[in-house]
Amino acid sequence: MFATLVGALLAVPNAFAVGYTVNSSADTNDGVCDVFDCTLREAINAANATPGSAITFQIGVGGSYTISPREPLPFITAAVTIDATTQTGYAGAPLIELNGSGAGTSTHGLFVFNAAATIRGFAINSFAGNGIQLMGASGGSVIVGNYIGLDGSGAVAAGNTSGVSVGSPGNTIGGSTAADRNVISGNANGIEVGAAAATATTIYGNYVGLDAAGNFAVPNGYGILVASNGNAIGAEGDDTKRNVVSGNFQVGVFIEDADTNTVAGNYIGTDADGNVAVPNGAGGVQIRGGSATANSNTIRGNVISGNGAFGVLIQATVADAASNNAIGANLIGTDAAGRKAVGNTGPGVVIAADSGIGNNSIGGTAGSANEIAFNSKGVVVGANATRNTVVRNSIHDNTGLGIDLGDDGPTANDADDADSGANTLLNFPVLVTATRDGSGNVHLTGTYDGAPSLAGTSYRLDFYATSAGTSCDASTFGEGPRWLGTLSSPANAAGDISFDSGALNYAAPGEWITATATDSLNNTSEFSQCKQLPPATGNALVVNTNATHDDGACQQPSGGDCTLREAINDANAVPGTDTILFDFDATFAISPTTPLPTITDDVVILGTSHPNYVDTPVVRIDGFDAGPSAIGLTVGGGVDGSTIRGLSITRFAGGGISLAGPSSNVQGNYIGITPAGTAAGNGNGSAGTGGIIVASSGNRIGGTGATEPNLISGNNGAGVYISGGANNVLQGNGIGTNRAG
């Protein structure tokens, strides 16, 4: 009886667990998978007969082994988990390599047919067919943790035709952990979701076209090809599901003749950190309709940068076959932080010529605004492509036009907007006046010359600002870095509009304003010619004494004295941006005996103006006698913000600087350190005191220039205490160090 029981257990290994252990790297098949000899071929056959089973690995004493099929492996036709991570010694990189170099023409590595299989932890390479093939009317397979098209090192290409080819529904490729990440590189194509049945595929967390470290290109031809409806590549707002699709020879993600697919939250054209370019050679994302439609696809929340051609291309080879696609909330041409240039070689977004009626949207709402920067052009709409909306994006620092209709440079307005072409060559608005109110909000007037055929319909006018520190654009037709607002205005009987924008959002003095028009058919114009806001006005006030009295006026440059207290009061009294300069014997500190006035109007305080200044502060404001809660300088109001630069601010019990007003700059100061470099801290040791106290938004403390970082050290409390606000930037400062760092 004992012998009979042993024989039964040997005949059905792991009978109680329904499992099969591959213990041989050979490619034989004697019809039995048992503890004495079980090849992968034998294990698949056994698992097909026992749905729901598991195939594990224990070849030799562990370590790396290569399985080299001499002919196609059996189709996987029953639910099964095949887990190569069970091989002893597995530590994150595959130990079991499935090499198809001798398996025959068109042979696939693992072929799943009408079944749900989990395939984990292999290096699958060198097959004349596809690395993994999923086919059938039913699916639900999970492909995780594999190197497909690479050897076991994860760095050397050994490609298949497609890494993974999907022809069944409901499959998952990758996952939300590093252990689930597939590295699919070195193949003719990376992932192909091709058959009509291949819907509801999710592709999460993979590297496609890179090495296993995510740093260097190991190219596929195309990265991801999608030719079926309703699939998801990545997920917006979930970094764990981010695919990195970079380094491929052709396009990173190519959607052809397919609808309702989503590409979201991925890095396309950069390394795995989103910092540097690893280009897809032919472009980032392409949507192409022709023999079937490519409609209602969503490209959202991606970094699409560094590619060798366009960022995004929408194309219809049959007119009207690529429509209602939405391009939103992407960074196109920048790093993942949206700050550094990682431009695409071609335009950021292209609607191809001869694509017909598109009704495609680029941006549209606050939550859908793209940043499109550092590319050859911002957005290009080709000839005979119409009804494409480009609104509310941040388009800046592109080499050519921000929006180019016809891909031929600026297109002049024409009478009654009678011409035709890309987006009907819609006329742009003409800005007549650009002013600011007392709060810095922009007011514009202008005109629009529209088509009489659209009389009575409403146009959307959008307005944008470009920093005063840069030129509008070499063409004088601006870009649109920052959206100021929109106005909906009906055309009169002639199709024309005279508009007054009312109060738009804030813009600084001297900034350049541009505008676009969008008609009722969803065509958006090029950017208008620029109109500059009036520059800042203000007086220069020269502090010529270290005294701290206030006799009612700063009498410089008229010949009398001017204390810092008087200069701040004078700057507060008159709207505008005044400048406070210094010229006195800086051997002695400015030592107020009561708190200095709060800054309530914009001012630039330049310790750097002192004749003895050479890269480090010489003007010291010392608060030892100023009172138990005094703060050195407090920015409490204004419109455009203040600048405090090149001062030494020491021994104020309440803190060195308080920022509680509009966005301001604090640069090149010693906070808590004397000009000689010794500690003389601000604050009293209690919460909310110390070097710099931040209670408002958008302030910049420090910077990247040689004299912009602050030295914030020796304080009795926090170096920088942020009690409120948002979007504050601290950069390059020495906090808690001496002058030498």
Quick recap:
With 741 residues, this protein is mainly beta. Helix content is 4%, strand content 31%.
List keywords for this structure.
741 residues; mainly beta; 13-stranded parallel sheet; 11-stranded parallel sheet; disordered N terminus
Protein architecture, described:
This protein has 741 residues and is mainly beta. The strands form 10 sheets. It has a 13-stranded parallel β-sheet with strand order 1-2-4-7-10-13-16-19-22-25-28-32-36, covered by helices on one side. It has an 11-stranded parallel β-sheet with strand order 6-9-12-15-18-21-24-27-30-34-38, with no helix packed on it. α2 links the parallel β1 (19-22) and β2 (53-57). The chain starts with a helix and ends in a 6-residue tail after the last strand.
The structure class reads: mainly beta
Q: Describe the biggest sheet?
A: 13 strands, parallel
Rg of Cα set: 33 Å
Number of helices: 3
Q: Strand order, main sheet: write it out.
A: 1-2-4-7-10-13-16-19-22-25-28-32-36
Q: What is the number of strand segments?
A: 61
In round numbers, the mean pLDDT is 95
Query: What low-confidence regions span 5 or more consecutive residues with pLDDT below 50?
Result: 1-17
Strand-helix topology:
Elements: H1 2-11, E1 19-22, H2 40-48, E2 53-57, E3 65-67, E4 80-83, E5 96-99, E6 110-113, E7 117-120, E8 122-125, E9 132-135, E10 142-144, E11 147-148, E12 162-167, E13 172-174, E14 183-184, E15 189-193, E16 202-204, E17 207-208, E18 222-226, E19 232-233, E20 244-245, E21 251-256, E22 262-264, E23 267-268, E24 283-289, E25 298-300, E26 303-304, E27 312-316, E28 326-328, E29 331-332, E30 349-351, E31 356-357, E32 361-363, E33 371-373, E34 379-381, E35 385-386, E36 389-391, E37 394-396, E38 403-405, E39 430-436, E40 442-448, E41 458-466, E42 482-490, E43 497-500, E44 512-518, E45 531-532, E46 540-543, H3 564-573, E47 578-582, E48 603-606, E49 619-622, E50 631-635, E51 643-645, E52 647-650, E53 655-659, E54 665-667, E55 670-671, E56 690-694, E57 700-702, E58 711-712, E59 718-722, E60 729-731, E61 734-735
Parallel strand pairs: 1-2, 2-4, 3-5, 4-7, 5-8, 6-9, 7-10, 8-11, 9-12, 10-13, 11-14, 12-15, 13-16, 14-17, 15-18, 16-19, 17-20, 18-21, 19-22, 20-23, 21-24, 22-25, 23-26, 24-27, 25-28, 27-30, 28-32, 29-33, 30-34, 31-35, 32-36, 33-37, 34-38, 46-47, 47-48, 48-51, 49-52, 50-53, 51-54, 52-55, ...
Antiparallel strand pairs: 39-40, 40-43, 41-42, 41-44, 44-45
